[in-house]
Fold:
Amino acid sequence: MPQLKCKDLSLGYDGIEIIGGLSFEIEKGDYLCIIGENGSGKTTLMKTILGLKQQLSGTVEFGDGLKRSAVGYLPQQTDAQKDFPASVWEIVLSGCLNKMGARPFYSKKEKQLALENIERMRLTKLKKRCYRELSGGQQQRVLLARALCATKDILLLDEPVAGLDPKVTAEMYALIDELNKKDKTTIIMISHDIRAALKYADKILHIGDTVFFGTKEEYLSDSSLGFGKEGAV
Amino acid sequence: MTELLDKIALYLSYPFVQYALIVGVLISLCSSLLGVTLVLKRFSFIGDGLSHVAFGAIAIATVLKLTNDMPLVLAITIICAVLLLRTGQNTKIKGDASIAMISVGALAVGYLLMNIFGSSGNLSGDVCSTLFGSTSILTLSQLEVWLCIILSVVVAAVFIIFYNRIFAVTFDESFAEATGVRSKLYNLLIAVVIAVIIVLAMNLVGSLLISALVIFPALSAMRVFKSFKSVTVCSAVLSVACSLTGIMLSVACETPVGATIVAVDIVIFFVFMIIGKLSSKSVR
Ligand SMILES: Nc1ncnc2c1ncn2[C@@H]1O[C@H](COP(=O)(O)OP(=O)(O)OP(=O)(O)O)[C@@H](O)[C@H]1O
Ligand SMILES: [Mg+2]
Structure:
């Protein structure tokens, strides 16, 4: 049983389809990159997988003991967060909420988990700082630490490196890669950075006028995608 | 100076002043707790809109000649709160526009009803006291005080129990939802609680000034403090302190209660703005 199985998925808003006929499966430990033009429906797909939005038709199934609430999610930034008075610690800790059941307050175990993830994302020095006063790269690391508190199994990242400089981008990719290789965390990442996608990912989902799903090697050899042009990038 | 203190001490011995202080503290505490969430969720205006709805509801109650208008007003306000938060989410009409619509509509209809069916000779006095609270906080009955205490305790308890989830839903609704927090439910909870607070606060400051009670402490605290917890605690403390000062001042100087409280809130806001500017400079 794959960890995530989407079948004949059709996505859209208000009954109008944006993209249809999406079928793919993800196994534990996979690294999937979703690529496609602006507005092709990548974020919509991710929201549907997360259950934030209803699909028009088709099914999304979680398997392999994975619960829908046990996922980590790094959203494409919203501006509501920009002037929010919250410390790094509070934000990372809020990732533990799905472990609490009906309990109202965090226990030692959750605080410990938050601390570990703060260390892991090299945020220890910034723990007490206010989120809105951090740089873009630091903010992304905070959100990643929060996502890690929510799960060890599967991370969905919506353009995690958007707006970061090349050095921080490389660090971010290295962190994500380490999570995938060392902890066997399944990664589903939306990216416009095809070169990085081909470097790190082992499966590619291309959405747009042509839909493609397969391994990186299949993607490279599939001439119908006109990859020859993009390969020059 | 001692004269003023003596005067205040004398007033404090009157039960109606004690009631006013108790109710004032509780209401300002509750309104400030949710104020932070409302400001951050860009719902600052909902207090304004709902208080006008409550005004309209009071007008209806007056027309129906109900002796106890609280249940009706509460019910109508809660329904509108839920509706408003709904429209805020799936936006065909933008959230702020629909709040403005409902708010102005309720105000107009309320005034019209009072005008057409009102029996009291002093219409503008009635309207003015519903809008600005006038002295009704000084004429509270024991029953009203108890009702207020119970509702405030419930509101505060709900806030504390759901504090962590309210934080998550306020900070990032999609993440909270994705990890299994039922954010729609919490939005509903926030809407109901804010409606309760507004109906309570009508007694204190009247429907025009409720927004001030909800927004000012949160905005002041956000100038200086940087974490959600410290902002929440600070705005609660500020709000209570300002209301106490305001009530005492208004009793001592015989000014309108609601307007005095809000004036104190405004002064504190500017003080905190300056503190915020200075402290951010000293960090750099
Ligand atoms: N809330 C919404 N209501 C209606 N249509 C929407 C909504 N959100 C997005 N869309 C439309 O759905 C399409 C896909 O949007 P989506 O955000 O999924 O694109 P994307 O692939 O993530 O793009 P980007 O690379 O810019 O992030 C777009 O055409 C967009 O206009
Ligand atoms: Mg997107």
Remarks:
- Chain B touches chain A at residues 40-42, 160-165, 167-168, 170-172, 174-181, 222, 225-231 (CB under 8 Å).
